[in-house]
Amino acid sequence: MATHSMKQQHGTWLATRTFQGDMSKTAAENLHLSHDRRSTTRLLLGRHEWISFPSLGVGPIIAKSDSGARTSSLHAENIRVEIDDNTVTFDTRSRDHQLISCRAEIIYSKKIKNSGGFSRERIVIQTIAEFAGGLTLPIKITLANRSKMRCPALLGRRALSGFFMIDPQSSFLLGAWNEMPPTI
What is the CATH number of domain 43-179? Predict the structure, then answer.
């Protein structure tokens, strides 16, 4: 049984929810939804997390967790495809806005629709993402100018799927930037 309570405190509403027993199973049964799949263990991720890309010499920087975005993205300026068409060089920024020159192999390019609904061809690279707490995983990221965005990196649902659940009310649940391993 769920109980809900709301109270006003200093002009804002505080909502609390209490769940008792096996409510999700009961709710699923009442709605005739499947409930017999076993849940896998997932890490709880905040809406913002510290991330590094050691092979690019980037990090730690802030990444926004965005389950609405399919693809992950990294801020990139001065994007240049080399003559061999297999390598890209670009600049990105450290957390204190210093330029970092990067080089990576191009996996492919694809059209990505931005939040305004406009499509643009973007280069996709693959690298290793390292989170606070030491978790590392391979990730495909597109290169885009994110200078007008608050976070230089975005974690899309393809990178998050199978590993994480997002708590949209919290940030930096995996740890602080100074707990990240040093970038080489």
Answer: 2.40.70.10
